[in-house]
Every structure is written in C-alpha cells, then in structure tokens.
Write a structure and sequence with these properties.
- The radius of gyration is 25 Å and the shape is globular.
- The chain has helices at about 5-20, 35-40, 50-65, 70-75, 80-110, 115-130, 150-155, 155-160, 160-185, 195-210, 235, 240-260, 290-305, 355-360, 400-405, 425-440, 490, 495-525; strands spanning about 220-230, 265, 275-280, 285-290, 305-315, 320-330, 340, 380-385, 385-390, 410-415, 445-450, 455-460, 465, 475-480.
- The protein is an alpha/beta fold.
- Mean pLDDT is about 90; it is low at about 520-525.
- It contains 18 helices and 14 strands.
- A six-stranded mixed sheet has the order 7-6-5-2-1-14. Strands 8-9-10-11-12-13 form a six-stranded mixed sheet, covered by helices on one side.
Length: about 525
C-alpha cells in the first residue's frame, strides 16, 4: 500500500526543531528534530525525497527566521506583502539544502544502512559549509548552534569548528531514527554499528567535560569595559542628535575609567560622525575629521584609557573615495592604532550584490553614507598585554573569517555590533549564540559591544561571564586574560569538513557508478 507524504507533519517537525535555538532554546529538540524526515525518506514515493526535505526546511527556516518580517517592514520600509515575499524567497532558498540532503539520504539509508550512520552526518555538515559560502554565504542557524547551552557538547568545536558539533547533532538523529525503524519492524533495536555512534558521542562529550575544568590564568588580567548606550536605530543617524549621542558615550566612558577600566569599547557605528571626510567621491582627497578625532583623543588622554570604537572611515578604491565600516583604536596617549575595515559586508545592508543588474534595489539601511567597500585583511592591534582582533557585526557568524584573527596573533577577540535592527526579536539572541561558539573554536575570550545589547564577556569555553539585557543602557565591566595557545581549528581551519566532504563525495560516486553499471547491464540484457 502506497503511503502518502504528510506535508503538515514535515513542516511542523522542521518548525519544532527550530525551537531548539533562541529565543526558546529548547536544545534537546535538535537531537530528534530530523527523525520524522529520516523515517519518511524510507518510504518509496515518486514525489519524495526532495519534496520531503524541502518541506522540512521550510518549517525549520521559516520558524527560525520569522523575525526578519519585522526587519523588512520597519527598516526596509516595505509593505507587508513584499516583506512576506522576501522572507519566503530566503526561506525557500535555504530549504533547498535539506532537500539536497534528502535526495542522497533516501538512497543511502536503503543501500548502505550501516554506513549511513556516518555518511548522513558527513553530507549534512558538508551542505552546511556550502550554505555558509555560496552566494556570499549565510550560515545562520547551523544545527550545531542549538547545543550551545550544553557546554560539554560544544567543546569539540576547538578541533572541528561548529561543523563537528553539527555532526554530533545529526548523528544523534540518524541513530534514533534507526532505533525507531527497527522497533516498528519488531527487530532488535541495537546493532553492532551503533557502537560507532556511542563511541564518537561519548568521546566528544567526555573530552568536553574535561575541557570545562577550571584552569590557572598564566597572564595578568586587563580591566575592560563596554559602553551600551542603547541608541534606537531611528535616532542613530539623526544629525540633530549626533552630539548628544557622542556625549552619552563619553559619560559612560568616564564611569568605566573611574571603575578601573584601561580598555573601553564602543559598539559598531557608535556615533554619526566619521573619522575622515571625503572632499569629493571621484579623484578627490580624504581629510581627517579633525574636530571629532581631537575630541576622542582628548577623552582617551584625560582618562588614561585605550578606546576601541566602531565608526565610518574612507578609502580610495579604483580612483573613487568609498566608505568602509571600520573599527578604530585610540591609545591612552592619544595616538591612533591601525584601523580595521570590515571584510564581509551584509548583502543589501551594506552593499547591493551585482549592482550592475540589481542597482534598482535599495539597501535595507536608512541613514547610511553610501555603498560600503570591504576591507582586505584582518587587523590585530596591541593594547597593553593584549593583542586585539576586532570583528564587526555580521562577520561573527563566519567561523573561517574569525579564526583568521586568532591565527594572526590575536589573544583577545572583540565583536563590535549594532543589533538594534532586530529589536527584541530572536535575532539578537541567535546572533549572540554564534559569538559563544567562536570563543570555543579559538579558545579566546570574546568581548562584545552591542549598541542595544546583548553586550557580553564570553570565556574560552563559551561560558557567559557577564552580559547585559536587551534595550538597556549602561556599562559592562570585567577582567580579560590574554590567551596565546592556538587551537587545532585556529591553525588548520575546516579540515574536518573536508574529510566529511570526501566521504560524502565517495559515497555519491559509488552510488552513480552502481546506477550506471545497472543501467548498462539492463541495456545489454535487452
């Protein structure tokens, strides 16, 4: 009897799986959320398996990213129908990856029932990696992030990156799906191959527990502070409020210095004033914004602090003067460190991709100065005993980009961001969750300054040492010790993903060879 694909169940199971991530953060759901899809893939149906994976993906990404509707409406100034259309297009694109996974998984579960226990997680993490790189990349919501609250389960990221955590998540789903399948057939639930999964999960979690043991600090700690001024997005670029915004940051900086901080952070785009002024766009000159720079230099000297802050700078690119989203440093003596220009820009937020074709599309930000251009290299600056690598906003979701700062010698990672765009939705919580994994991957403290929150200090094991709430103003203080040792992931990058991709590619090649051989045999028989 032909069984009918239950689209509602698949969409619902994907949506429930998304509840494993913030704001709900019901992380155990991620360990079983893929099981309904894996069981459905056993059914032999003409419309499956791609449709089954697509439906699951629509539920997962639709629930995960539903908060973007408000973003499109409020900051993109789009009508409800167009906002919903844009969200649906993004969700449909992302759902293609579970659909591709399902096409191979349906065959592997039947042809290689024992090997699929490892092959399916390998394929899943390979596709997550592709999703994080294809068309500029959008790795938001990778399955491994759901385990962030289960600290022993994420420590493996220092070797494998986030993709190793995703591997453990999918391995759990495949294992449980196998048990349910055998239970339905009245077979013995456990098989010899399951021991591989138990060994992998047990070894990863056990090693993770060991990594959580308190260690002794071998470096003197530096007192740091973060200013969270909580400037609403619709006020941030208001020229009439510009001086009061800077004054507000200065007032909190005074309080931070009085509490003993020697390094103070202001968030991304902390004030409407750039640190340079272009004379003209084409073939002109770039002059320092003297008044603003002198004001900040005086602040740093007066308080005896180093100030690291988000700003707009200008660079000459191909004969034209273009803005960059930048992080600038002023030392306690008033001198300037090297300015970092953000390397990975937000599509339709900081630039329009394929602008020659899509030039009619307005960027989704109001009050910005113009299409930004990306920086070319990571910048590490010295502040006392610390070597600081600063990552700006959206860059923090790209593990291979962040590791370049640690690889270049950063002993502290800093994230300057402005999540005011997301309001009090799940967006800021999901963004912050990825910050915690970057700390584990590189075994570095991460100091985060967010305009409206969540500002935080995250330790090298991913624990939140201190944090602020959303939509509050004030300062966050703490002590940071530099970390010198480079993790396997910092030194070697995505080696684990490469191994997974090789195994998945070999299985696909074997399948096509077998299919081709069967076709040739049938042709000869005829």
């Amino acid at each position: 009897m032909r069984r009918i694909l239950p689209p509602g169940i698949l969409v619902l199971s994907g949506a429930l799986t998304a509840l494993a991530l913030p704001q709900t953060a019901l992380w155990p759901l991620i360990l079983v959320g893929l099981v309904p899809l894996l069981l459905v893939l056993d059914w032999k149906m003409p419309e499956a398996p791609a449709l089954a994976g697509l439906l699951w993906g629509l539920g997962y990404f639709g629930c995960l990213l539903s908060w973007l509707f408000r973003f499109f409406r409020r900051y993109g100034e789009l009508n409800p129908l167009l906002s919903l259309t844009l969200l649906a297009m993004l969700v449909a694109y992302l759902a293609l990856f579970p659909a591709l996974f399902s096409c191979a998984a349906a065959r592997w579960q039947r042809q290689y029932p024992a090997a699929s226990l490892v092959l399916l997680p390998c394929l899943w993490v390979s596709l997550e990696w592709v999703r994080g790189h294809f068309l500029s990349g959008f790795p938001w919501g990778a399955s491994g992030y759901a385990l962030t609250e289960f600290l022993p389960g994420i420590q493996i990221a220092s070797i494998t990156g986030i993709y190793g955590v995703s591997f453990l998540v999918i391995l759990s789903n495949v294992l449980i799906a196998g048990w349910m399948r055998r239970l339905a057939r009245a077979e013995s639930i456990f098989r010899a191959g399951d021991s591989i999964a138990f060994v992998l999960v047990g070894a990863a979690v056990g090693w993770g527990w060991l990594q959580l043991r308190p260690g002794e600090a071998n470096e003197a700690a530096t007192r740091v502070a973060v200013v969270q001024a909580n400037v609403p997005q619709d006020q941030k670029w208001n020229a009439a409020l510009a001086r009061s915004i800077v004054a507000k940051h200065e007032r909190f900086t005074d309080q931070a210095a009085a509490a003993g901080a020697t390094l103070v952070l202001w968030p991304e785009s902390s004030s409407p004033f750039p640190i340079a002024v272009p004379v003209s766009a084409a073939g002109g000159e770039i002059h320092p914004n003297t008044e603003y720079r002198e004001r900040l230099e005086f602040l740093a000297r007066r308080l005896g602090i180093s100030l690291l802050f988000g700003t707009v700078d200008y660079r000459k690119v191909k004969g034209q003067i273009r803005p960059v989203n930048a992080a600038a440093l002023i030392h306690s003596d008033g001198s300037w460190g090297e300015t970092y220009a953000k390397m990975h820009l937000v599509p339709f937020g900081e630039y329009v991709p394929l602008s020659g074709i899509l030039g009619f599309v307005n960027r989704m930000v109001s009050g910005a100065i113009g299409d930004f251009v990306p920086g070319e290299k990571p910048v590490v600056v010295r502040v006392g005993p610390l070597r600081v690598g600063t990552v700006i906003c959206y860059e923090m979701i790209f593990p291979e980009l962040v590791r370049r700062f640690a690889e270049s010698g950063a002993t502290l990672l800093v994230n300057l961001t402005n999540d005011a765009w997301f309001g009090t939705s799940a967006g800021p919580y999901q963004h912050f969750q990825m910050v915690r994994i970057r700390a584990v991957e590189n075994r570095r403290y991460v100091l985060r300054a967010a305009n409206t929150g969540i500002s935080a200090i995250v330790d090298p094991q991913g624990r939140v040492v201190a944090s602020t709430r959303l939509m509050q103003e004030g300062i966050l203080e703490g002590n940071i010790a530099p970390r010198q040792t480079k993790t396997f992931y910092t030194r070697h990058g995505d080696v684990f993903v490469i191994l997974c991709a090789i195994l998945a590619a070999a299985a696909l090649a074997a399948h096509f060879t077998r299919f081709r051989g069967a076709g040739e045999g049938l042709a000869k028989h005829e």
